[in-house]
Amino acid sequence: MFFSKCRDFLFNHLKRDCLMSDNTVQAYRHGLNIFRKFIWEVHSLGVDKIPFEAVTAGMVKEYLRWLTEKRGCAITTRNHRLTVLRQYMKYCSKADIEGRRGQTYDHNLSIRTGTINVRS
């Protein structure tokens, strides 16, 4: 499931392996929680119901629109949320979750950051 490695990502990878500050880890945790909220509000899916394959570029674009239109996030905040998702998916891909050797999940997020128009 998509959120199955959150604790490892936040506290083992970011904190211990990458030596990121507590504030950075909290920002990443908040970013993942906001994505959880989006999944629940827009797709009515609990954290235990969403597989990696469901998180497509289309869903992420919808999430970026939701951040801008529903939550009033600035472009920099929206881009940080996208970075959090990319880094989490890259970590999970390397961790080889669900026993899928060689499967990568970060390819779903080939979305450019910056001032892209998310209202299309």
SSE map:
Layout: H1 6-17, H2 22-43, H3 57-69, H4 75-95
Helix pairs in contact: 1-2, 2-4, 3-4
Give a verbal description of the structure.
With 120 residues, the chain is mainly α. The chain is 57% helix and 0% strand. It contains 4 helices and no strands. The longest helix is centred in the first third of the chain and has 22 residues. It is globular.
Known CATH architecture: Orthogonal Bundle
Strand content: under 5%
Given this structure, which CATH class is correct?
Mainly Alpha
Q: Which class of secondary structure composition applies to the elements?
A: mainly alpha
Q: What's the structural domain tally?
A: 1
CATH topology term: DNA polymerase, domain 1
Overall, the morphology is: globular
Secondary structure tally: strands: 0
Query: What can be said about the biggest beta sheet?
Result: none
Q: Please estimate the helix content.
A: 55-70%
First-last Cα distance: 29 Å
Tally the helices. 4
Low-confidence stretches: none
Please trace the helix and strand order, writing H or E for each element: HHHH
Mean pLDDT: 82
Task: Compute the CA-based radius of gyration.
Answer: 14 Å
